[in-house]
Design a protein that fits this description.
This protein has one domain: Winged helix-like DNA-binding domain superfamily/Winged helix DNA-binding domain (Arc Repressor Mutant, subunit A, Orthogonal Bundle), CATH 1.10.10. The chain is about 40% helix and about 10% strand. It contains 6 helices and 2 strands. It has a two-stranded antiparallel ribbon with strand order 1-2.
Length: about 120
């Protein structure tokens, strides 16, 4: 049955590549572009373009620590279509970040600390 379910939708998905990139970054803010490409099933070049678009649109904030980038998801940002624009991206990410075993992944937090001038916690990165 699992094989039948997996093959039923080959060729299309319910989410865009932008959603997959955002989900990968929400799971691991200091993730490398190469890893996002593998996670989302797209090329590194496509990930770079999508990350740039998400930063430009305000869905991600890009931080630099040494030679590494890490990204802060802005969960308060609205979904982009009129049909669902009253919902925030954080709502969708929280659902998608739920793990099957009932353990919750860390949902993205609002950037309140960033807006008040404090630096994000980057220890261990």
């Amino acid at each position: 049955m699992d094989a039948e379910r997996r093959g039923a939708g080959e060729g299309w998905t319910f989410f865009t590549n932008h959603a997959y990139v955002l989900l990968c970054v929400a799971r691991e803010p200091d993730v490398r572009i190469r890893t996002v490409a593998q996670c989302a099933g797209i090329t590194e070049r496509a990930v770079q373009r999508i990350v740039s678009e998400l930063v430009e649109a305000g869905y991600l904030i890009k931080h630099r620590l040494g030679r590494r980038n890490f990204y802060e998801v802005q969960p308060h940002m609205p979904l982009r279509r009129p049909l669902d624009s009253e919902h925030e991206i954080g709502e969708s990410l929280r659902v998608l970040l739920d793990r099957a075993d009932g353990e919750r992944a860390q949902p993205p937090q609002a950037a309140d600390d960033h807006e008040h001038g404090t630096e994000p916690d980057v220890q261990g990165r």
